[in-house]
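hiii, so i know i said id send this last week but things got crazy w the move. better late than never?? heres the sequnce for the chain we talked about at the cafe, plus the structure i predicted for it. fair warning i was half asleep when i ran it
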Amino acid sequence: MTPKKKIVALMIGKKTSFGVPGKNIFKIHGKHLFEFPLVSAINSKLIDELYISTDCPTIKKVSKKYKAKIIDRPKNIQNPNTLTEHVLENAHNFIKNDLGGIEKIKYYILLYANGAFLNHKLIKQAVQKLNNNKKFDSCVGVVNADMFTPIRA
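okay and structure toks below
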């Protein structure tokens, strides 16, 4: 019998933010901003593994209460010029090694630390779309926002 492939949630969030300093750890209604996407992922009841890629001590500490596995970002991808794809490549390599190979991963759910508007229903809808159409290999959420929206910060 083939083991079930896992749905992996990966949240990325760095310590320093140049647009709005400290935004990822800013508290809203008693929770850090980065906690909202974590809670949404957990509440979807679809996530088998939860990983956090960060260099922020606060994100690392608080994420442990959600039973997340922490991926410590190496120094070479902690600077302001680091591309998201380098962070994702580092995290993917960590996760596939942790799980015992890429063949153990069904989907990645990518969470952003500043993604407070994501909710568990959107995650469920995305996974359902992927499950219902085998021609799809990815699903991307988008938002219609102008250049002055706080989402861009």
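btw The longest helix spans residues 84-99. thought thatd interest u
miss u guys!!
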